[in-house]
Structures are given as structure tokens and as C-alpha cells.
Amino acid sequence: MRTVIVGDIHGCYDELLELLEKVELRPDDLLIGVGDLVDRGPAPGEVVGLFRERPNSVAVMGNHERKHVRGIFSYAQEITRLQLGDRYAETVDWMRTLPYHFENEHVRVVHAALIPGIPPADQKEEILCGSTSGERELAALFPGGHWHDHYTDAKPVVFGHHVTGREPLIRDGRVFGLDTGACHGWNLTALCVPGFTVHSVAARADHWSIAKRRWQLPVLKTKPWRDLTWPELAGTIERFSSATDPATRGWLESVEEWAADLRASFPALTDAAYELADGLTADELRRHPAAKYLFQARDGRLDQATLAKRCPTPRKTAELAAALGLVVTEPPD
Ligand SMILES: [Mn+2]
20 CA distance to ligand 1 centroid (A)? Predict the structure, then answer.
């Protein structure tokens, strides 16, 4: 029985299958993923499925899993959420159960790092998995160097997290960095112990570059456009302004137009409020859904600036417009 440890897989399922074939993985071999099973690559669900369904398999918590567990959504996590669809919530529940380190008689495995000389069980999760705060702490502890430069514990340590290049980082037969950038089109690497042999397969594509383009429009469509404030809305459009795909560009332009139309409706809304306030009795004003604006209009105190302040989002603007009996444009589908 061997222990087969695989570096950051990041949804590269075809490469994982090829690698496991190459090492001739047997059912009684223990398979360990160093973490970052998901994000950036094409098939996170399949990778997770393999680790969950195969007996003798362990996945260590990576900083990418931890982001999902903590609900921290950057673009890569938004893509994974869409890729997993209905299975997303349940997959994240599984991620919650992942250990932050693994150890047997041959090796210890962590996703990102550990402080030499301290047992993994006594270390901070942030450091083990390489979260942003853990990285900061490590950088302060080892300025200008790496934690593993100082690793002299007897038991070999295996990790991923930092891409070491196309080749793994191997030092003194005791330090094994296995992230060889599979999701960036480089290699997926495994270490087999107790022989400590290293095996790699070439990635089939620069998966992350492809995913970034391919999922742009679907991710954009999941943004809560109606509930973003005007500055947030402009900022979101700005963040995607380098999109080159014509469908994405076209869609962003129609969102921009929709937002501009809504904001251009403030004078018309103000006018409508004055007109309505003129024709209604005090009692009717009180019962009106736009009562507070109508009372201000009746007293001549409603101006566009006040109205704009009360309409910080598209939804608020559309709701007021509807209350005042005006039709405003709908956002693009
Ligand atoms: Mn990674």
C-alpha cells in the first residue's frame, strides 16, 4: 500500500485521471489531495466526486475550499458556483469537513505551509491552508525567505499552494512542493511514498485563461444589478470593462444604458410627484405608496437631489417610479 499525494488539481479532472493511471493507483493505495481541488479548471464537480466516492481518499483543506466554506466570492469562486449548479451547497458542506493537515508514518501534508518545529495540529488553520491573513503572518515570520527553508523536522512535508514552476520543488528529500500549475497549462504532479517518486502529466490547456473568458457573461448575469448602489454598479461594469467577447460587451452596454435611463428619469419622477400632489386630497396623499415624496412636493420641498438620495439603487428607483405611475425600462435578461 502506497500513499499517493497529488498537488493542486483545481478542477483539472482529465489530467487527474491520466496521472492516477500513470502512477498505477491501486484500490488499497491512499490517495491524498493537497487541497485546491476546485476553482479555475473545467471540472471541479468531477474532481470532488472522485475524492468523495473513492475509498482511501483524503483531501486537505486548501485556501480555495476555505473561500467557499466562508462565502468569500472572487471571480474563480463565482465560476465554480455556476459550474456546480444544484450541487454547490452540498459540495460546500462537504468542504467544511476537510482536515487542515494529514499525517502518517511517512509524511505530513498541508495545503500551504507550516511553522517548522510545531506539530501541525497546534498550528493556525490560516497558516496551514494559506489564507490571506496566514500568508501575511508567514511573510512577517520569514522575511525574504520561505517557511520551508527552515524546515528540518525529521518527517518529510508535502504541500502545494505556491506554483513552483513546471517542476515540483524538492529539497533534501524532506520538502516537497507539488503545485506545478496544472490549471495554468503546466503540469499536474504526484508524489508516491514510501518510494518518494515523483510523476507528472502535462495539462491539456491553460484552463484558467479559458474559464475566465468562457464564464464572464454567465457570472455577470448573476450580479444583483437591481440592488447595487449606483457607484457599485458603475464599479462592477468598470471591473469587466476589459472584456473582449462581443456578447459580454453587448450585454454590459445594455446594463449601462438601463442604469443611465433610470438615472435620467429623476426629473420626470420629480415632475410626476408635483403633479400628483396637486391633484390629491391630504387623505389620499397619506394613503399613497409614495406619500413622503408627495408631501414634500406639496410643500414645494422636493427637488431632484433629494429624490436621487432616496433612490440609491435601480430597485428603489423603479419602485418609486411604479408608485408614481411611471413606466421605467427593465434590465437586460
Ligand atoms: Mn492552488
Answer: 19
